[in-house]
Amino acid sequence: MNSVKELVESNCLKSVPSNYICLKNSEDSILCETQNIPTIDFSKLTSSNPNERSTAIQQLGDACRDWGFFMLINHGMSETLRDELLRGSQGFFDMSVEDKREFAGEKLFDPIKCGTSFNVMVDKTLFWRDYLKCHVHPHFNAPSKPPGFREIIEEYSRKSREVVGELLRGISHSLGVEENYIHKRMNVEMGSQVFVVNFYPPCPKPDLVMGLPAHTDHGLLTLLMQNEVGGLQIQHNGNWIPVHPLPNCFLINTGDHMEILTNGKYKSVMHRAVVNNKVVRISIGIAHGPPLDSIVEPALELLPKDNPPAYRAITYRDYLQLQQSHQLDRNSCLDRIRI
Ligand SMILES: O=C(O)CCC(=O)C(=O)O
Ligand SMILES: [Fe+2]
C-alpha cells in the first residue's frame, strides 16, 4: 500500500516526488486573516430558557446561510474522549504496513477503507494525506486494531450523532419548520454516518503540495476536530480564510445534501487542507447524511413560492459515487446535479 507516512519515513525526504506537486495559481495562496468563522454555543441551543434557545437558533441559521461553517462550543463531548480518539488514530497509522493492509478495502462502499490521497484511481496529482474511512452507522464498522480504538470510535460516533441530532433540530427551526422536520424527511435515525481520519505527515516543501484540495463535503452536516495543528482553510465571499479553532471546539459544516434540501439557502462551502514542514496534522471528520438509498431533492416546503428546484433528485449513494469517481478539483460535485 502506498502511503505518505511510509514515503516520508523511508526516504528522509528533502524534496517532494513530482507526482505530488500541485499547480497552484497565485490567487489561491492569498489568505484573508482578518475574519474567523462564527461560534455557536451548544449549551444555549439546548437551553430550557426559550429566549436563549431562540437567539441561538437564529445565530445557527445565520451561520449556515452566511458561512456554511461554524465552531461549536460547550458541546458536552469530553476532552478525554477527543484525546483518546486522536491517540488511537495516531496508533492506527503507526501500525506496520502489513497490519494496515488488512483494512485497505478496494471498493467505494467497503465498510472500512484505508489509503492515501483522495482516490488514487482518479487523482492526477497525489495529495499529502493518508486516511482511514469507516461506515459507522446504521451498521457499525471499525478496525479491530490497535486495541481499544474500535470502542473509542463507537462511543465517539454515538455522541456525535446526539450532537448532530440537536443541531438538525435547531436547523429545522431556523428554516421555519417544526423541529423534527429534517429528522423525518431524511430519516436521520437510520442515516448514514461516515467516519474519516485524515493523517497529514510533515512535508519538506509544504507549498508545493496539498493535503486535501478544495472540495465540499457530501451529507447534511460534518463534525470535524483536529489535533492542535492548523491547516484548514475555507472559502468565504471569494477569499480563503485560515481557520483558527477555539480549544476543544468542533468545526461544523453544512454539506452538499443540506444545500440540496434547502435549495441553496444553506451553502455547502469549499474548503481545503494544507500541510506544514514540522509536525503531523490529524483531523477527524464525521459526515452525517440520510440512509444511502434515500433520494435527496429540494424540499418544496422550504422553497419560497415560484422558486424552482435548483438541483435534480439523486440518491445519496449515487451522489457519493459521482463525487468519488471524479477528481477533486476546484468545483463542487454539486455542479454535476445543478439544474
Ligand atoms: O483536514 C481538514 O481540516 C479538512 C478535512 C476535510 O475537509 C474532509 O475530511 O473532508
Ligand atoms: Fe471536507
Main attributes?
single chain; 339 residues; alpha+beta; Jelly Rolls; 8-stranded mixed β-sheet; 4-stranded antiparallel β-sheet; 9 helices; 21% strand; binds 2-oxoglutaric acid; binds fe (ii) ion
Protein described:
This is Fe2OG dioxygenase domain-containing protein. GO terms for molecular function: L-ascorbic acid binding; metal ion binding; oxidoreductase activity. Belongs to the iron/ascorbate-dependent oxidoreductase family. Keywords: Iron, Metal-binding, Oxidoreductase, Vitamin C. By secondary structure, the chain is α+β, with helices and mostly antiparallel strands. The protein has one domain (4-14, 22-336): Jelly Rolls, CATH 2.60.120. It is 28% helix and 21% strand. It has an eight-stranded mixed sheet with strand order 1-2-10-7-12-5-4-3. Strands 6-11-8-9 form a four-stranded antiparallel sheet, with no helix packed on it. Strands 13-14 form a two-stranded antiparallel sheet. Strand 8 and strand 9 (239-242) form a beta hairpin. The chain is globular, with a radius of gyration of 19 Å. It starts with a helix and ends in a 15-residue tail after the last helix. It binds 2-oxoglutaric acid (AKG) and fe (ii) ion (FE2). 2-oxoglutaric acid is lined by residues 196, 198, 212, 217, 226, 231-232, 271, 273, 283, 285.
